[in-house]
């Protein structure tokens, strides 16, 4: 039915073009062929996107969508341009590396669709994706703002019109991801008919996500037994069509059973999650990779030695040839040409060898990242098994430090000399707040300039910010209100100024605790040669100045 409507729309657009324009037959045929090509590239991009086959599928679909965007811009067709912008947003959303880009594309597409009366339903769907994108970066304020606007607008539509809005269950899922369970329950109860929620094979798992949302509401929201939807979610995991869905649902089930204190089931799904993660990333033994890297480095050094030796031979032959040029110019010309050809072949072999070495270095760093993730998971498992509050607190602190190192390591792999600290800090704050999201509600306010931090300073600075946030979560008293964290990073000419605060207060009669976290902050500040200040009345509010050189 969807394809039929698309074809009808396409024919109407073509008829409108023929009636309203005084073009020649050749020009009209070119317009038809160009729009037909646009539809072809969009459909091919969607086909690759729906495979969920990792980075290769994302790259392939992006090439198709980029070609469609060029055609849309040449035609200056607002509907086609809006569709191509939306397609780019989907690619960045699936890539999950530049969430700010995803938000920019979705906002632009939503704005363009909003100007076209016939595309208002599509605009509502894109707004739901925009809310999801805000949720992924833990911008709960903007996420809930978009969801409330959507809810209010959908309420104005008839029940029949709502039946066409298959994405409504996704709105409730997004609301649970930022911790707003009352809004999620209101969306499901007032806007969704459970009996009519269906998956769309190869695209959207609306019914599976409905079960996940209801399970979260039962476990994290109402916390009332019996839990009617956990069995359905387990069945969804058992019948997952691909390894990526299996990885996602095993992680969700682990979190739900862990929150219920069901250690056997939580351990079972954590184990499944680790196995799925290993399968998705196609792990190779770390020692094997290291040995291959060492062998390749030895081979490269040997080839460099051969090249230097050959170069010396070439120079000797050249000088001899110049000395006897009068009697053997033709012969020496042949010898020199052959030597040059050998040098060129050896040089190409060295270049290929260096490329392989670079690839192995990247693979080695990838294994390091996976091992850090494994250490993180082991600390988390040990934390679940411990009954001692002090031990649990120490394990959680160690786990967050490992997570900070892992995130920074990944950012360093993307940049050679400097780290994009704005992008890194979004990921770091999300990781830390997710760890405590079930203990208290947390909202973050990040005001960050587009600054680059030298790699030699980035690890220390990451650990300092980790300790600041952990201290606020542990010690900031808010009288049961939402904890708000404020981080400002200002890029000056020769230094970087970082300000940190929260909305909590400190009991003036209570003695300030100088634990391991405070010692870490002081030691790392000395290591950075940075000046650090804090208000005596607010000992957990900090200002730190770091020189760029």
General description of the model:
It is a single chain. By secondary structure, the protein is an alpha+beta fold. The protein folds into 3 domains: 23-219, Tetratricopeptide repeat domain (Serine Threonine Protein Phosphatase 5, Tetratricopeptide repeat, Alpha Horseshoe), CATH 1.25.40; 262-385; 414-547, Heat Shock Protein 90. Helices cover 72% and strands 8% of the residues. The chain contains 20 helices and 7 strands. It has helices at residues 2-20, 25-49, 55-75, 78-95, 99-114, 120-136, 140-155, 159-163, 168-177, 181-191, 206-222, 230-238, 243-260, 263-280, 286-323, 325-385, 389-414, 421-435, 455-475, 516-528; strands at residues 418-420, 442-448, 452-454, 483-491, 495-502, 531-535, 538-547. The chain has a 5-stranded mixed sheet with strand order 2-4-5-7-6, with helices on one face. The chain has a two-stranded antiparallel ribbon with strand order 1-3. β6 and β7 (538-547) form a beta hairpin. The chain starts with a helix and ends with a strand. The model is unreliable at 1-32 and 283-290 (pLDDT under 50).
């Amino acid at each position: 039915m969807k394809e039929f409507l698309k074809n009808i729309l396409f024919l109407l657009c073509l008829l409108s073009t023929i009636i309203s324009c005084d073009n020649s037959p050749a020009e009209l045929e070119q317009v038809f062929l160009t729009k037909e090509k646009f539809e072809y590239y969009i459909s091919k991009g969607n086909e690759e996107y729906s495979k969920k086959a990792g980075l290769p599928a994302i790259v392939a679909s992006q090439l198709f969508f980029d070609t469609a965007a060029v055609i849309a811009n040449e035609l200056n067709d607002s509907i086609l341009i809006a569709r191509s912008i939306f397609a780019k947003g989907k690619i960045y959303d699936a890539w999950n590396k530049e969430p700010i880009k995803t938000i920019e594309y979705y906002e632009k597409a939503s704005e363009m669709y909003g100007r076209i009366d016939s595309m208002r339903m599509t605009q509502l769907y894109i707004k739901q994706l925009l809310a999801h994108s805000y949720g992924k970066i833990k911008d709960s304020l903007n996420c809930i703002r978009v969801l409330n606007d959507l809810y209010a607008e959908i309420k104005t539509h008839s029940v029949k019109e709502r039946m066409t809005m298959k994405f409504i269950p996704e709105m409730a899922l997004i609301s649970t991801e930022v911790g707003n369970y009352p809004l999620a329950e209101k969306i499901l109860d007032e806007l969704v008919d459970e009996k009519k929620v269906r998956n769309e094979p190869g695209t959207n798992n609306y019914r599976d996500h409905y079960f996940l949302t209801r399970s979260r509401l039962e476990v994290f929201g109402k916390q009332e037994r019996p839990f009617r939807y956990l069995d359905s979610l387990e069945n969804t995991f058992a019948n997952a069509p691909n390894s990526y869905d299996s990885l996602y649902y095993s992680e969700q089930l682990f979190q739900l059973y862990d929150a219920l204190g069901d250690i056997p089931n939580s351990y079972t799904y954590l184990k499944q999650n680790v196995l799925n993660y290993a399968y998705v990333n196609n792990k190779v033994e770390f020692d094997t990779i290291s040995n291959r890297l060492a062998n390749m480095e030895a081979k490269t050094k040997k080839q460099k030695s051969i090249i230097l030796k050959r170069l010396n031979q070439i120079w000797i032959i050249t000088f001899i040839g110049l000395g006897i040029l009068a009697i053997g110019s033709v012969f020496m010309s042949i010898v020199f040409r052959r030597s040059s050809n050998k040098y060129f072949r050896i040089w190409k072999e060295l270049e290929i060898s260096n490329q392989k070495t670079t690839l192995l270095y990247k693979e080695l760093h990838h294994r390091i990242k996976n091992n850090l993730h494994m250490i993180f998971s082991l600390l988390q498992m040990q934390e679940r098994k411990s009954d001692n509050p002090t031990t649990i607190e120490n394990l959680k602190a160690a786990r967050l430090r490992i997570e900070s190192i892992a995130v920074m390591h990944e950012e360093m792999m993307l940049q050679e000399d400097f780290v994009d600290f704005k992008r890194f800090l979004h990921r770091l704050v999300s990781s830390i707040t997710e760890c405590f999201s079930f203990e208290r509600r947390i909202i973050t306010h990040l005001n960050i300039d587009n600054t680059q931090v030298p790699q030699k300073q980035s690890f220390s600075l990451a650990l300092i910010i980790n300790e600041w946030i952990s201290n606020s979560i542990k010690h900031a008293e808010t009288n049961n209100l939402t904890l708000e964290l404020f981080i400002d990073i200002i890029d000056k000419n020769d230094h970087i100024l970082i300000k940190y605060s929260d909305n909590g207060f400190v009991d003036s009669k209570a003695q300030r605790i100088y634990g391991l976290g405070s010692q870490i902050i002081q030691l790392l500040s000395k290591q950075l040669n940075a000046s650090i200040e804090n208000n005596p009345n607010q000992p957990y509010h900090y200002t730190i100045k770091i020189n760029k050189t």
